Structures are given as C-alpha cells and as structure tokens.
Amino acid sequence: MSGQGDGRDTVGPRCLVTGATGYIGGRLVPALLDAGYRVRCMARSPGKLRDHPWAGDVEVVQGDVTDPGSLDEPLRGVDVAYYLVHGLRSGASFEEADREAATAFAERASAAGVGRIVYLGGLTPVAVPGHELSPHLRSRAEVGEIFLRAPVPATVLRAAVVIGSGSASFEMLRYLTERLPVMVTPSWVSTRVQPIAVGDVLRYLVGSARMPADVNRSFDIGGPDVVTYELMMRRYAEVARLPRRLILGVPMLTPRLSSLWIGLVTPVPPSLARPLAESLRHEVVCREHDIARYVPDPPGGPTGLDEALKLALQRVRDAQVATRWSSAAPPGAPSDPLPTDPDWAGGSLYTDRRSLDVDASPQDLWRVIEGIGGDNGWYSFPLAWAVRGWLDRLVGGVGLRRGRRDAARLRVGDSLDFWRVEEIEPGRLLRLRAEMRLPGLAWLEMCAERGEGGRTRYRQRALFHPRGLLGHVYWWSVSPFHAVVFGGMARNIARAAEKAAAAGTGAPDPVPEEAPSSRAR
Q1: Which CATH superfamily is domain 350-503 in?
Q2: Among 27, 175, 235, 291, which residue carries the largest CB count within 10 Å?
Q3: Is the domain defined by 14-320 classed in CATH 3.40.50.2300?
Q4: Helices 168-179 and 270-278: angle between axes, nearest 10 degrees
Q5: pTM (2 decimals)?
Q6: Comparing 218 with 131, which gets the higher pLDDT?
C-alpha cells in the first residue's frame, strides 16, 4: 500500500473511494475529508491523483474493480466503500463486465469486513420493463441490485441529470443552448426529468456513510424541480441571459442520431452522448424522498434548478471547475506510459525532435507550455489541428473540444483537447498522451531547460509507437506535414515566450503561424 497521507490525522471512519479520478469521485474526496473521515483512494493509475490539492491528505492505493485480486488490500480496514465506477463502453460485453466487477467488489468487501457499500446509480423510470431500458441504465440498475443482495449493507443512490460545473449533463445542456438559437431536437426533450445539483449529490453521498447498519435499500435523489429537457434549456438561456431559443421537436431522431448531433455541437463525444441521450427517453422522476430521514434537507431544501445552473455557470466563468466529465479517460483510451528506453523491446518508436534557443526565461517559456491547448490553441497551423479534431470525432473519438479544466494550470490526469497529461514537472516538463483514435500510441513532450551560456532551451518530442502495418502507414503518410505542424509549434511557442518576456506578462496570447525559422531543427 502506497500511502500518501493519513486523512488529516483524524480518527474517524475510513472510507474507500473508487473512481477518485472521475467527476464525482474527485469531488467526494475533499467533501469526506471536510466531514472528518479518513479517506483511501483506489485507482488503476495512482499517479493520476498526485496533483490534486487533497492528495497529501489521503492514502492512495492501486486497484482495479475488474481485477478481483487487486481489491483485498484497498478494502482492508475500510468502514465504508464508495463504488463510483461506471462502464460507459459499448458492445455486448460491457454489461457482463460491469456485473462481474460489482459482484467481485461485493464479495471482497464482505470478506474484508466492510461496514457499508455506497453506490451512485441512475434513476430508472416507473413501470418500464428492464429490456426496454437503455443498456447503460439497465446495467446501473443491475449493479445496484447486486449490492443490495450482497451480505454488506448497501446504500444505492439513484440520480437522473446531475447539474454542476464540468458534468457531462451540464456541458451538454450548456453547449446545445449557447450554440443553437434555433434547435431541431429529438422527442426526448419533452420527457420529464428531475435534475439534481452536484452539491446535493455530494451531501447525500457523505451522509450515507453514517446510515444505521440495518438500512439496506435504494433511495431516489433529485432536486425540487421536475421539468422537461426543453424547459431546462430555456431556463439555462434565462440564467445565462441569452435570447429566447426556438426549439422544434423531430420525432424521427433516434438515440444514435441524437448522440451524433450532440457530438457535433458539444464537446461531449458520441460515445458518451449516446448513454446520456438514451437515459432521457423515459420519464425519470423521483418516487420518494426517504433519504431525508437519514440525511436531512438543508434549510430551504435541496438546491433548485435555477440556482444549480447559476452556481455551475459561475464556476465555469470563474475558472473554478474542480473536476470535469473528461477527468476519467474515455472508453478504449490508451493508458500505456511512455517507454523510458526508446529502443525497448516493444518494436518501432518513431520520433520527431525539435529544439531551439529562446530569448526568455525558463519561467516565461514554461507559462506558455503549461497554457497550451484549449482556447490558446496549439501554436501552429490551426486548420490542421481543427481538421484532425474533426476526423477524430467522425470515427467516434473525443476530438479537440474537450478543452482544459483550468486555463492556466495543468495536473497529471487532466484532459487537454484530445490529449491527457501523463507527466508534468512544474517549470520543466509536460508530457501528453494522445487519446485520439490512432493505429498506435502517441505522446507529445515539451521541455523548458537552461541551455549553454545561461540561455533558455526549448525541446519538443513527438513519439509514435505504431500498431501493425496500418500504424506504419499512418506515420509515413502524416510525416510530410510534421515540419509545418511540429516545426511551427516549436517556433511559435518560442515567440510567444519571447513576446511575454518583452512585455513583462505571464499570460501570452497565441501567435499565428509564421515563416519557418532557422533556429528550429
């Protein structure tokens, strides 16, 4: 067990949080710490948690719910185990994988003497047979039933649309409403739904840890407003002070077409948009509010929709988004770390190297490096990056529009357009791993160093490990463009740092692609 902290030196109950790299898990951890609990986080890649502001206050252990043998150590000595893992894959096997993972987790939790399992699932419609539910909603309901039948007492919270800065549901709502003053929408926009503020979700999750031992049941959780998705869009437009939106329903838009439409307009990729859209086909409204017996409502009751939208929007505008829907890697994304030895036994590793001297301090250069992507762009040939992003979305990838969680700061595990931060050494190194659809694995490294004579040196490496013949063909087909894309990136990053140094600012603007320079090689 690789502990990084002791839960703020408290002696309260110990909670295990699975899915701590995800949207809800990353927010639940500090909420539990504030409530006086000792917290242990389980992650497949523990290094992804090291840059979170609470990392020094928790234990971090390696574990994977799909590997039962890895669960014994994380569950040892745990009083409450939070299961915040959801499979958002597609295909015939994902339901079976979720079923097996939940069953193994329940069995290992029982063997470890865990006092309670808390699971956050989806709100299911009334009187709708299981075979008519979307596969993802059906799977979440099944996982909840597995925990309720297990020997360990369970609290299963069932929520519909979660409204909070960075949530996939909020981002989908925000971008659809802001970008489309006139919308042709599927029939599910007229379906009733009961949204809930993320703050209330966290309050219920934290409060569930102290439920009496004889409580073993599910609870519907939702805010005070029951609305249609169309009304939610109109309410968002009012909160954001946008002109009134014209919304036209079109019954023939299937969930698949809806997901492609959502993927076209919003940063949410079709692979994630589809389960969100499918879950809205049926009315999802709370049937009871029994959770208030154990987790009392705050003064004034749960947060209303308008207030939840205002809070989320303000967080976005203030760049205070703690976690985003993209905090967790998308289904099928590569996770292999960069080989430490370029000549390792894994085969070919193609490399594009650039380096040049910069008339700026390493600090000025680093601010440009850490600010790359999102609204700042990639400092070279914007059209090429945009086309690559669109091509990725056309084949079901995440594309460029995930943007950044924070406009100026990055941490390990952050998504950055179609990359993810694999390693960051503040002031020196940023390494990104590609999550675009590729016939291989790809990384991009940027370094700020002290060169000879005290000058600043910028180093850049793009690496690609091909998978099969297609991977080799891919590399050689795009290599003619590297001088423009990667060479231009190196030159313009250097120019942006020099411009910032000359102006005495720490927030340089992106600069356009200019003529080649002899400094880059």
Answers
A1: START domain (3.30.530.20)
A2: 291
A3: no
A4: 100
A5: 0.73
A6: 218
